[in-house]
């Protein structure tokens, strides 16, 4: 059994490596800027959703306020760069560290809450952050920040001629988020988180320090999401509070994981690969002529998938044997 | 800031708070009944406002008269939503919480899309209704008539709901189903029927609120989003599962909002509501009147 498990984990690592290698080759053949743009967004959402999944999927603390950390990452990088000339790379680390600290500071009171009280607290806190930024004159208030072009290099992390560097960074970020999840899944933290998710009281009685394991999940999750936010700020070179910290964004981040399979290693990747291109396509091909059609398609898809496949799209790939065994146990 | 301004804004805060209570009570009712949070609640409000607007624009029916019609239409709509979507969502074998959140949230997106498609994203408003823009002076305090009528209607609705839940057979069936849906089936009450009627009732209440809101607020596809968050906070503040917690929660939210607007710039007035919610749940993790 143990050997089986080790083999399965090694196989997952190999599959991920192959997929990443194939993904890295794709832009060599696909030169269309629009398609490349969609690919960058897909990878970014895969990374974000994977990070969200650590706290909400594995640890079971459903957060609908992760836009706060995304926005913090984006704003820290953009402000440090435009006001003090700090390179985005340092901004990225600063934003990640700041978000992780804030996640733990907020977690301290919030992790006592359960169920819907917790979910609403996350929404409300992100909303407070949004309102504060919208009223913060120095940070550009509701108008946001225009990030000036100061170069075309990896050093400044700005590229004007090609989207390829952004693509490779997004790919690297998605791989890091995946690998961190893969690694944590089989660490003591991973087991603690799943125990906390299934039954916090039982976990506590068996010696899992529930509070600390939630804090750990929140810090890792917030750090990675903030790095994604820093990347996004550089990628679009213009940020405003609503687009990086709005409630919609928290949902967009959660959706790939939810539809792909919450609390699973491959769910966020699968969800992002299907959902993001589909959103972009409906937006540009149907959305232009009849406004609102993109929302109708998107919403219908969410309703249908969440009702028909509560375990997410990954459950389609589960082998029948596995299903059968599960059924017998139940 | 004079004492008069303070009393004035607290009075309008109280009226608005009673309306918030009316918007939120449907959410509280449905949650109390079956532990489901309807993430399309704001969109229920939105279609109620559109219904009121179109009845006014095409048939010249004043919102005060169309309110019962809108409530009845929403009753049917709520029951249909339960039968078509929620009934299946609560049966989910895995990730039940997520399935409920995202199936109703998907519905919200579809409704917003449909509203954009059929009604365009334009802002619309009911002009020259009986109450629109009128104020009444009570002892030197000016109260806007639409909000005043809305507040009275809210009190009446809560009183009616109290009577309904405690004095009628259906109300008792509702209470019993909420206590133990399994045992209820044993005594011959159809659980699905009670749930469907509960969803209808919850939607009808938000329909009533929407008809009043349409008198003094713009109607547009995204109008539900901002009120939905206030409704969630209202319900959670009162305590999930407590219908009358929503009444108290609404009043608190209205008063806090008015007070914050006195101290902070108007664009930050919601911060007060959110901060009070956090303070309350940090001290009482189940809201003010929540027992479960």
Give the total of beta strands of chain A: 2
- In DSSP terms (H or I, runs of 4 or more residues), the helix count of chain A works out at 14
Q: Sheet bearing the most strands of chain A, described? A: 2 strands, antiparallel
Low-confidence stretches of chain B: none
Q: What sort of overall outline of chain A do the alpha carbons produce when their principal axes are compared? A: globular
> Beta-strand percentage of chain B?
under 5%
**Using only CA atoms, what is the Rg of chain A?**
20 Å
> Biggest interface in this structure?
A-B, 47 and 52 residues
Arithmetic mean of pLDDT of chain A: 87
What would the average pLDDT of chain B be, to the nearest integer?
A: 89
Oligomer: heterodimer
Strand content of chain A: under 5%
Low-confidence stretches of chain A: 321-330
Give the total of beta strands of chain B.
2
Distance between the termini of chain A: 20 Å
Helix-and-strand structural type of chain B: mainly alpha
What gap, in angstroms, lies between the N and C termini of chain B?
Answer: 42 Å
Order of helices and strands of chain A: HHHHHEHHHHEHHHHH
Helix share bin of chain A: over 70%
């Amino acid at each position: 059994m143990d050997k089986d498990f080790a083999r399965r984990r090694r196989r997952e690592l190999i599959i991920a490596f192959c997929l990443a290698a194939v993904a890295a080759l794709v832009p060599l053949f696909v030169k269309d800027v629009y398609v490349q743009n969609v690919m960058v967004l897909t990878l970014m959402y895969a990374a974000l959703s994977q990070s969200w999944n650590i706290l909400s999927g594995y640890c079971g603390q459903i957060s609908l306020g992760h836009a706060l950390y995304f926005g913090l990452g984006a704003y820290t990088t953009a402000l440090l760069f435009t006001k003090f000339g700090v390179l985005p790379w340092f901004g990225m680390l600063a934003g990640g560290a700041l978000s992780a600290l804030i996640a733990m500071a907020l977690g301290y009171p919030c992790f006592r809450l359960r169920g819907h009280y917790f979910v609403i607290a996350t929404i409300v806190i992100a909303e407070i952050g949004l309102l504060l930024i919208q009223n913060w004159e120095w940070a550009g208030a509701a108008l946001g920040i225009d990030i000036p072009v100061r170069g075309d290099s990896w050093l400044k992390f700005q590229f004007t001629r090609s989207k390829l560097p952004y693509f490779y960074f997004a790919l690297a970020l998605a791989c890091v988020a995946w690998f961190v999840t893969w690694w944590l899944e089989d660490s003591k933290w991973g087991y603690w988180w799943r125990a906390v998710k299934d039954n916090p009281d039982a976990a506590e009685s068996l010696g899992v320090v529930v509070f600390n394991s939630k804090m750990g999940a929140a810090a890792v999750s917030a750090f990675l999401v903030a790095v994604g936010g820093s990347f996004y700020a550089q990628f679009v070179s213009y940020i405003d509070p609503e687009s990086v910290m709005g409630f919609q964004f928290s949902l967009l981040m959660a959706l790939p994981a939810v539809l792909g399979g919450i609390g699973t290693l491959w769910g966020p990747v699968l969800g992002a690969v299907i959902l993001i291109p589909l959103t972009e396509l409906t937006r540009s091909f149907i959305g232009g002529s009849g406004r609102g059609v993109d929302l109708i398609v998107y919403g219908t898809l969410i309703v249908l998938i969440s009702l028909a496949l509560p375990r997410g799209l990954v459950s389609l790939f589960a082998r029948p044997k596995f299903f059968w065994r599960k059924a017998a146990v139940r | 800031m004079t004492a008069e301004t303070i009393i004035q804004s607290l009075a309008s805060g109280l009226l608005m708070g009673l309306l918030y209570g009316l918007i939120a009570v449907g959410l509280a009712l449905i949650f109390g009944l079956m532990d489901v949070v309807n993430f399309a609640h704001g969109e229920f409000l939105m279609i109620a406002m559109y219904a009121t607007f179109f009845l006014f624009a095409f048939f010249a029916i004043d919102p005060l008269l169309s309110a019962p019609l809108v409530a009845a239409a929403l009753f049917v709509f709520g029951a249909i939503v339960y039968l078509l979507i929620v009934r299946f969502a609560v049966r989910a074998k895995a990730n039940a919480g997520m399935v409920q959140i995202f199936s109703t949230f998907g519905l919200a997106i579809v409704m917003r899309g449909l509203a954009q498609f059929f009604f365009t994203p334009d802002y619309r408003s009911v002009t020259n209704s009986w109450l629109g823009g009128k104020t009444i002076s009570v002892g030197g305090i000016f109260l806007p008539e639409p909000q005043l009528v809305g507040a009275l209607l809210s009190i009446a609705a809560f009183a009616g709901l109290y009577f309904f839940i405690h004095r009628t057979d259906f109300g008792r069936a509702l209470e019993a189903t909420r206590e133990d849906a399994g045992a209820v089936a044993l005594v011959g009450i159809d659980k699905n029927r009670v749930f469907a009627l509960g969803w209808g009732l919850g939607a009808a209440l938000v329909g009533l609120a929407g008809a009043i809101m349409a008198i003094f607020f713009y109607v547009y596809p995204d109008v539900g989003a901002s009120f939905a968050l206030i409704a969630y906070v209202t319900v959670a503040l009162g305590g999930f599962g407590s219908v009358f917690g929503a009444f108290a929660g609404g009043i608190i939210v209205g008063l806090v909002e008015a007070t914050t607007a006195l101290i902070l710039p108007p664009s930050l007035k919601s911060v007060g509501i959110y901060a009070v919610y956090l303070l309350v749940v940090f001290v009482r993790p189940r809201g003010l009147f929540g027992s479960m």
